[in-house]
Write a structure and sequence with these properties.
Layout lengths: L2 H10 L1 H19 L16 H12 L7 E9 L10 H16 L1 H4 L8 E2 L1 H41 L5 H11 L6 H16 L3 H11 L5 H16 L5 H10 L2 H12 L6 H4 L15 E9 L12 H17 L3 E5 L1 H35 L2 H25 L9 H24 L7 H28 L7 H37 L17 H4 L1 H8 L1 H20 L32 H11 L6 E8 L6 H13 L14 E2 L1 H9 L3 H9 L12 H11 L1 H7 E3 L5 E9 L6 H12 L7 E6 L4 H36 L4 H23 L11 H25 L4 H28 L7 H35 L9 H4 L12
Antiparallel strand pairs: 1-3, 1-4, 2-3, 5-8, 5-9, 6-8, 7-8
Helix pairs in contact: 1-18, 2-16, 2-19, 4-11, 4-14, 6-7, 6-8, 6-10, 6-11, 6-12, 8-9, 14-15, 15-16, 15-33, 16-17, 16-19, 17-18, 17-19, 17-33, 18-19, 18-30, 18-32, 21-34, 22-31, 24-29, 25-26, 26-27, 27-28, 29-30, 30-31, 31-32, 31-34, 32-33, 32-34, 33-34
Length: 953
């Protein structure tokens, strides 16, 4: 069946077509109501050994990751003091912590043990601890002095049988600060009487013990209990901490800060809460972090997904911080980021949607210059979107962030189809010889092959994503292919049927519906014929420039970075939005600015690489090898440095060292296990681990996995990455460090959220781009060869049609490199988009040119009609599409902004390649490869071989 026959059937049976389309739309509309939203980025991560390793760590170590999430409150000093360590600021942080405990929205999410960590709390607790220690020492001295006085009294009573016992006790009572009671007196009197009756040395010693230590037994027991409690760790209330800080003198406060944050005495976990520029021991600092640990109750939590309780809790933390803290405060946590990411899409659509609609309406009005055609085109676009999202609903594909560009893409392709169809329809009716039915049939026949070819090749371009390893990108390719087919159905069936029906109805009532096609007038003609003129005057120079630019672009494409960093997901709030009405103004976004502050001023705790050591971890050499891996990692520039210049590395050895520094009993065990004096235990490791858990199980559980049966199964080494270190560099360096451990009974596996897994995702994105690109080019090339062989009798025309697409792709990749736009979860689809739209434009030009040649015209005439007719339609389509994508630059997600910019550039390049470069290629194809053309024809004979072609001026 010929194209002409099919085109005529559509116009003749337009009522059947309309009914069928409406019924299908109702079915797809029902599916669209079931569509759900999913913003989870975890779907981008691929299954791997590294991911399984992280899951093992989350399940078996006290990671504060699997069942908890941490909100980091960045506190920056106010402008007046510039110091978060001054008394007022310290107190405000402590009051902030107390307010968090008192607020039900926050308190119900806090973990049971040590939920809030801060430097002010550490300072206050240390000061109270030291005061308490001095108090206990004073009590001990008083008890010892009293004991000595009681002993002296007993000696006098023993030496003088007439001395009064009561009088001696009262003398001691008067001379000691220890409050002695009647019970004390009774015990002393009993001991004194026994002393006077003692006949043996043993009885005498017993009497002395009872009359001294025995009298003060309760006091000594209380002192011992208080000392034990102090050794176990003092946990004063926040009110007590506030009162103590307020009562301290300036000198006492400065001295305590120096002891807590001194370069030698300071603890790494506290330095992790201080700016990297902080000078250890100094009583001044520009900022600090308060870490709030929340219980997720087993629910999934990530940068883009968090349960409502966590979101509400972190929002409350932010609200309380604004009212309680001196200076400025901002909260960074998965609850805040998930809420902002979820809000970014509707907020962006509220701004971008009206702008896109207005832009498309204006451009279509200019292109069509007819309100009826504009309305029909808009209705067609709506149907395409309903069909696409309806199919997603029926297939159970959730709407994720990666699908945000899909509506713009489908609108762009729909407009492209509509403009090509309508402009060809108008061209066919220009001379007034054809009615609406015949004109539409001729127009459909003229662009039908091109539309079908474009649909096949573009759909294949997007379907090539299914060969990649990333689930959302595979779904993206499927959805785009569905939408493209829907666009062909709607604009190849519905729009022609509706247009003919309307035009016939109006023309029977005397209203002329004939309109001029875009590009056929005098205004755009000088622009559109540039490609024809270059093909006539400087074809070789054009091709040389195109090839050179493409070579540079191809090189640049190999240098484009790939990123899956958290910052790419976070929305930003441009200043111009402050001028918007409240009804469309976006919410305030803070996470992006906060994470920038964390990157620049602090050590980010969410960027960690980890080495899991499993196997014979009680072997005498294991800790030595783990320590070697840690020391090897410290030499890397990818490791963050704390303010005391210590590397941000946590290992079993460093964890045991921190506990040994405050626990004398464990300190002895730790050093006893180090037989060679190098600071690393190398003997009796199992008993050492036992003592470690007994001394501080909370710390031990972060670096050692002990099974329920008491067996030691795995160790963990944690490396915090520098803020400017790439995921690739961190992964490479960590793997190199792990090689020092792996082997001889133990295995060392590398993993890490925000580092190793990000790098794997980045590699998967690159793999998807490369594999889909190669698959697309291969399949599309074959399709073009087959189609051109069937329609033009020459397979080479398909290859020529593909060349502008390759040029465009190289130019786009080179531009991404120059503009430093990385591949990420959205911009990674740009290769598919470039091929899809590039094929669209090239096919329309090649198909039109071939048809014009078949009509018997000269090369010059064929080029003239192609670049003014089809070229005009392409110009209108490109302007609309590029503008539509460009409006994504007003979105609040940086990744969408990048995508909109590079997509608009891609469309511009595709238009240039199709209407400027392709005409020259088509002329050379005509001269050397086109079938059934006489090489000695007049046009060829009249042109020099080097400059070739013909232009009928």
């Amino acid at each position: 069946m010929s194209v002409e026959t099919i085109a005529a059937a559509i116009t003749e049976n337009r009522r059947v077509v309309l009914v069928a389309i409406l019924l299908l739309t109702a079915g797809f509309g029902a599916g669209a109501t079931t569509l759900e939203e999913d913003t989870a980025m975890d779907e981008f991560r691929t299954e791997s050994d590294e991911r399984e390793t992280l899951e093992y760590i989350d399940e078996n170590f006290a990671t504060r990751g699997g069942e908890t999430t941490t909100a980091h409150v960045v506190v920056e000093a106010d402008e007046d003091s510039g110091n978060v360590l001054e008394r007022e600021s310290l107190v405000s942080v402590l009051e902030f912590q107390r307010a968090l405990h008192e607020d039900d929205r926050v308190s119900r999410t806090l973990v049971d043990d040590d939920p809030i960590g801060s430097v002010p709390s550490a300072i206050a607790t240390t000061a109270i601890h030291e005061d308490r220690a001095r108090e206990l020492e004073s009590r001990a001295a008083e008890l010892n002095a009293t004991e000595a006085k009681l002993a002296g009294a007993l000696e006098r009573l023993e030496a003088d049988p007439d001395a009064a016992i009561e009088a001696e006790f009262e003398t001691v009572d008067e001379r000691t600060p220890v409050e002695l009671t009647d019970d004390h007196a009774d015990t002393f009197e009993t001991a004194a009487r026994r002393l006077r009756r003692a006949e043996t040395e043993s009885e005498r010693e017993t009497a002395y013990r009872r009359g001294t230590r025995g009298v003060l037994g309760d006091e000594y027991d209380s002192l011992a209990a208080d000392r034990a409690a102090l050794d176990d760790g003092l946990e004063p209330s926040l009110t007590a901490q506030i009162d103590h800080v307020e009562s301290m003198s300036d000198d006492e406060l400065a001295a305590t800060i120096e002891r807590v944050l001194g370069a030698d005495e300071g603890r790494d976990e506290l330095f992790a809460l201080m700016p990297t520029a902080y000078d250890p021991g100094e009583p001044t600092a520009s900022g600090t972090i308060v870490a709030v640990v929340q219980d997720t109750e087993g629910e999934y939590v990530a940068v883009d997904s968090a349960p409502a309780s966590i979101v509400t809790g972190q929002q409350a933390i932010d609200e309380i911080g604004e009212s309680e803290l001196e200076g400025s405060a901002s909260v960074f946590g998965n609850g805040m980021t998930a809420d902002e990411i979820e809000s970014a899409a509707p907020d962006s659509l509220a701004v971008v949607g009206p702008l896109a609609f207005a832009f498309v309406l204006v451009v279509l009005s200019i292109a069509y210059r007819d309100p009826i055609d504009v309305v029909v085109g808009l209705v067609g676009i709506v149907l395409v979107l309903v069909w696409t999202f309806g199919t997603m609903g029926w297939l159970g594909i959730d709407f994720a962030l990666v699908f945000v560009p899909v509506p713009v893409l489908l609108i762009a392709l729909s407009i492209d189809y509509a403009i090509h169809l309508l402009m060809r329809y108008r061209e066919e009716r220009t001379d007034g010889t054809l009615d609406a039915d015949a004109g539409m049939a001729a127009g459909l026949a003229g662009v039908g092959v091109a539309l079908v070819t474009v649909t096949l090749t573009t759909a294949v371009g997007f379907l090539s994503n299914v060969v990649g390893p990333i689930g959302p990108l595979r779904e993206f390719g499927i959805v785009c292919a569905i939408g493209i087919v829907a666009a062909l159905a709607v604009f190849g069936l519905f729009v022609p049927a509706v247009t003919v029906s309307i035009d016939n109805f109006l023309e029977t009532r005397g209203i002329d519906r004939r309109r001029g096609a875009l590009g056929t007038g005098d205004r755009l003609r000088p622009v559109l014929v540039i490609g024809k003129r270059i093909a006539h005057r400087a074809p070789l120079a054009l091709l040389v420039v195109a090839v050179v630019l493409s070579a540079g672009g191809a090189y640049g494409g190999t240098q484009v970075d790939t990123s899956f960093d958290t910052a790419a997901f976070l929305p930003e709030e441009p200043e111009w939005t402050h001028e918007l009405p409240d009804s469309v103004a976006p919410r305030t976004y803070t996470a992006a600015a906060t994470i920038e502050t964390l990157n620049e001023e602090f050590v980010r705790q969410d960027r960690r690489a980890q080495i899991l050591v499993a196997g014979e971890i009680t072997d005498s050499e294991t800790l030595q090898r783990v320590d070697t891996a840690g020391r090897e990692a410290t030499t890397s520039e990818t490791v963050a440095r704390l303010p005391n210049d210590a590397p941000a590395i946590r290992s079993p050895v460093t964890a045991m060292e921190s506990v040994a520094a405050t626990n004398e009993s464990f300190n002895e065990t730790f050093h006893d296990a180090d037989t060679d004096g190098d600071g690393v235990p190398d003997s009796r490791l199992a008993p050492l681990y036992d003592e470690f858990f007994a001394a501080d199980s909370a710390t031990a559980e972060t670096v050692i996995h002990r099974t329920d049966e008491g067996e030691y199964e795995a160790l963990r080494l944690i490396v915090t990455a520098a803020g400017d270190a790439s995921s690739e560099a961190v992964t490479t360096e960590t793997r190199a460090a792990a090689t020092a451990v792996d082997g001889d009974g133990v295995t060392a596996a590398v993993t890490g959220q925000g580092t190793v897994l990000n790098y794997q995702t980045e590699r998967a994105i690159v793999e998807t781009i490369v594999t889909s690109l190669l698959a697309t080019l291969a399949v599309v090339g074959c399709l073009l060869v087959v189609v051109s062989r069937r329609t033009a009798g020459s397979a080479t025309l398909g290859l020529v049609t593909l060349i502008p697409v390759l040029l465009t792709l190289c130019w786009v990749l080179g531009t991404m490199w120059l503009l430093e736009i990385p591949f990420n979860y959205i911009t990674g689809t740009i290769a598919s988009l470039t091929i899809g739209l590039g094929i669209d434009y090239s096919v329309h030009v090649s198909e039109r040119y071939h048809r014009e040649l078949e009509r018997g015209g000269t090369i010059g005439d064929a080029l003239e009609r192609t670049v003014t007719g089809t070229g005009g339609a392409l110009l209108g389509s490109a302007a609309t599409t590029a503008g539509g994508f460009g409006i994504l630059g007003f979105a609040f997600l940086p990744s969408l902004q990048y995508f909109g910019l590079i997509a608009a550039i891609s469309i511009g390049y595709a238009l240039v390649a199709s209407v400027i470069v392709l005409p020259t290629l088509l002329v050379y194809w005509t001269r050397f490869a086109a079938p059934d053309r006489d090489p000695s024809g007049p046009e060829r004979a009249s042109q020099p071989a080097a400059t070739s072609t013909a232009e009928d001026d």
